[in-house]
Amino acid sequence: MIKVALDAMGGDQAPETTVAGAIRAARELPIEIIMVGQRPAVEQSLAHYPKRPANLSIVHAPDVIGMEESPAVSVRKKRESSIAIGVELLANKQVNAFVSAGNTGAVVAASTLIAGLLPGIERPGIAILCPGLKGDTLLIDVGANINPKPLHLLQYALMGEAYVRWVMGKQRPTIGLLNVGEEESKGTDFIKEAYSLLESSGVNFVGNVEGRDIFSGEFDVIVCDGFAGNVALKTAESIAQTMHQLLKRALSMNLMTRLGAWLAREAFLSFRTEVDYAERGGAPLLGVNGVSIIAHGASSSKAIKNAIRVAYESVRHELNQHMVESIQRHSQHVPSS
Amino acid sequence: MIKVALDAMGGDQAPETTVAGAIRAARELPIEIIMVGQRPAVEQSLAHYPKRPANLSIVHAPDVIGMEESPAVSVRKKRESSIAIGVELLANKQVNAFVSAGNTGAVVAASTLIAGLLPGIERPGIAILCPGLKGDTLLIDVGANINPKPLHLLQYALMGEAYVRWVMGKQRPTIGLLNVGEEESKGTDFIKEAYSLLESSGVNFVGNVEGRDIFSGEFDVIVCDGFAGNVALKTAESIAQTMHQLLKRALSMNLMTRLGAWLAREAFLSFRTEVDYAERGGAPLLGVNGVSIIAHGASSSKAIKNAIRVAYESVRHELNQHMVESIQRHSQHVPSS
To answer: What is the mean pLDDT of residues A303-319?
Structure first.
């Protein structure tokens, strides 16, 4: 049976939401869930539920890495933290996957240092599924690696292609390179080098794409440096929130708009579901030797459950094995760095 | 009287929308407008209007630089284009400002090469006013300079500060540095260098900000490299469009949602006005010796009119003189590069 370790202490509302999410996942999925965290706190949250699912257990971790702590320092010093112990379970093959809504940098550092990377991969990348009118786009990297080499972007393309193909079931995914314009001549030297690597790599590279393409759904995978990806993702999140606020304010303008909003409530509910990141769950940290999933710090229990589902699907579809094969197959194209 | 040259051929719907925008601006503002472009085409669009305002004239430019042409090449080769001739009017002090919704790269190149930069400025930056719940934020740079030095970000900060202070009338604007996290230790070497330059510069530097802060309105000015800024801006535009589409689709779901949407139509109109970039007009290309304003390629006549208004306000408040004074005042902090 597939085993998933969940960082019980990760996220703004942990362990309440992590426990709630774990219980939902334990009921819905044919997996074993190991909650890693401070046992008394986890037990206390679990006590709110009448019946603990049999496929849910606890591994005690006395320490917690805070959301604001330095990733490198905290992972080195807090070897007894829920993140370090959870990733150790992954490294020792005691679990198939690790899920955390905690300190993203710490999860990246621990996954890289303790679990290690897949053969042929130099740096991991955080992949986010972005909803668009024409479908979903996997954006890699949104912050694991803010100063990548061009070769890392090629590795993201190969891993992203494998993810979309094997986990999402789409044949021959299209790959775009995030740039400031579509023409091949655009961009920094870094981008131009990445362009030529991608072009000769054998992936289904469709050329440069722009910020506006991230949420259009026209491309299956978009690769970028972690700095630009992080800025784009956080900008998108805040725009979506701001628009919701503005719309809410406008709809409460007067009696008629309020009546209209009430009559149209079904539409707003459907709209909210479509743009709700919680529906999409966690972001895979691609390249780690073992499945490592990062969830949003503000994750609801539904988001935690869906992050666990993403972990489950990645393991079930043998994502890492496919990624390694893909990297090996393309290794003749990959110059040594 | 303040004179503004308008690139009559710039934008997706030129010269219809540029002529319409120029007529609206000529009626509303105490300025002279010189439309630069192919005289027959401009005359033809003008013929739709019963009366041509007296403060509106035409300067013939036989060539047009297309939206997809290489900026560097087109500006060098097409010296008779509307962009080149318009910027030459600016360089020769025949006009106070130039406005274009045409090829952004060509406007940046022509402004830099033909009009030149202000003393102490090494590279110009495109500044965009981003609406937020708590106010507006000026984001610099969104694409003029995709590979800046840390010093350029300090220059953007000084210019942005002057813009917010003198054109928008806000004392002691706050300045943030776009990064992937708030802690001082975050970011690439480039960002860390920019951080320390900003910290010791005497501007009201409030530290690192994130993508989510661009549309929060909590900061007056955010500086960034043109690559990240361009990606953020285009992502924001597409998210806003996608959300509109999704909302529209949801509201047409059934009879009740359609009735609700109709009753609440006043709210949707107010919502659209708030997020409509056309209300905000053009983006100043800060650092040019003479006011140069870039409008969106998809500008409506209202957006063109508002871009002309931005030009007018910049000239009226003697923005460039204030920027030069600010640069000079801070020059003791600025290391030679």
So the answer is: 96
Please, what is the average pLDDT of chain B? Answer: 91
**Using N-to-C axis directions, what is the helix angle for B226-251 and A265-275, rounded to 10°?**
150
DSSP state of A81: B
Instruction: Note the pLDDT of residue B66.
Output: 93
* Residue A260 to residue B264, Cβ atoms within 8 A: yes
pLDDT band (50, 70, 90) for residue B337: very low
Do B139 and B117 sit in the same domain of this protein? Answer: no
Nearest to B313 by CA among B299, B293, B294, B296: B293
User: Which one of B193, B230, B239, B255 makes the best mutation probe of the A interface by having the most chain A beta carbons within 10 Å?
Assistant: B239
**Is residue A72 in some structural domain?**
yes
CATH number, position B213: 3.40.718.10
The two tokens of residue B205 are 């530097």
Task: Report the number of distinct structural domains present in chain A.
Answer: 1
Is residue B188 assigned to a domain?
Answer: yes
Helix (H, G, I), strand (E, B), or coil: what is residue A32? Answer: strand
B52, B111: one domain:
yes
Same domain, B2 and B47: yes
How far is it, in rounded angstroms, from Cα B239 to Cα A143? 20
The parent domain of residue B15 ranges over 1-121+287-337
Question: B216 to chain A: which residues are within 8 Å by CB?
Answer: 238, 242
